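Recap slide: Lysine--tRNA ligase, sequence and predicted structure.
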Amino acid sequence: MTDSELDLPEQLQIRREKRQRLLEKGIAPYAVEVPHTHELAEVREAYSHLETGEETQDVVSVAGRVVFIRNTGKLCFATLQSGFTEGSSGERLQVMLSLAEVGEQGLADWKADVDLGDHVSATGRVIVSRRGELSIMASSWVLASKALRPMPNLHSDLSEETRVRQRHADLAVRQEARDMVRARAAITRSLRETLHGLGYLEVETPVLQAIHGGAAARPFHTHLNAFDIPMTLRIALELYLKRAMIGGAEKVYEIGRIFRNEGVDSSHAPEFTMLEAYEAWGDQTTIARMTQQLIVDAADALGSRQVVVDGQEIDLDGEWRWAPFYPTLSEATGEELGIDTPREVLERLAGAHELEVDPEWVDHKLAMELFEHIVEPTLVQPTFVCDYPALAQPLARPHRSEPGLIEAWDLIIGGMERGTGFSELIDPVIQRERLTEQSLAAAAGDPEAMQLDEDFLAALEFGAPPMGGMGLGLDRLVMLFTGAGIRETILFPLLKPQS
């Protein structure tokens, strides 16, 4: 044993000693293949009709992780657990090892070599124990993989920190963790199936970008050695998807990771998954109907259009109302507010509602912060908040009837923004003006401002069709359906390293 191994906790040392002993005996602690004729779920389904004490002569070979062991004198019991798949959340099945069936050496080896967490294969007859437990009465067994670290107790609660840092252990012992993975997969699959049914093409766009844009967010910076140029990780999917639309793709979408170098809390992560979709000849209303269908279809995939968030029931089958930004803010504050409201009024309202004001916020930004602080938490049922000031979305079309506003919405469900959409700005002259304003703000020190993207503007000057576009946070959609925080919905979230 090496010096580093001597420093290990006793449990880890013992397991390493067992591994070494197996190797010295010529037994592979990590087999290439083992007998495996039936999945655990197949055995349960095929023999569920057996009664207590009934035995068969049917011999099967099953494999799984040992999650329970009870070793007695001449009879040992173990519970094997299978992995989980799209169609199964994992199954458990009892294996019995008796002196009469596996022999003295087989039973002694089992007791000496097998620990909780090991993967084993057992071959034997299908029976039901005297206690009514469907079981395999093993005639032989094989070690498939030796676990060198003990697994958590099945009946102890893991802290959230342990769950996210050791997701492999979380998945092994906690049904809720496996259910979360399967729920997210079902939601993602539903999104794709709905979009496919509507005629959308799925495409992929670059993650590494020379110019960041498509959202107001702080990017991650990196360097491309091959070209010796600075690069960023994408903060949105938008601009390249629009280039595909300009080239003639009438309906496109992408589900992909994006990266924002900002705060981390229960609803924000540095890397997360977005769905963005764009349709030609549409606008904010058509893309809103499509977004509603996406979410309702995902709810159907999980089995219910009624969800509960923080104890409040949300009816996705009910009305999805539209709430204009300034009238809704006016109703919440009791004062008539609009695009021309003086700053001193907004600052007074901010003070009354205990909102700390950043001096860098322009008037419309302050109004948006007020809305997020006062109104957004109260919007429990699905609500499209619309008619924002132009500052909200530099890539959205000016409102066709309300000067100073844009045709854009944020979808609020359960007091949280779940997605956004708008009638896309396709006028390259106005778009250049908007991006120039953004680039000047960036040059003045705004880390979230977009840069002037000449390649995108050149593409837009080629001519884009009228279109509607949307972005939907996949992680926040999973949060809606599961009631979990964002760190639980992301299988392997980015975490602060432990010292």
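DSSP finds 16 helices and 18 strands in the chain.
The two ends are 27 Å apart (CA to CA).
(End of recap.)
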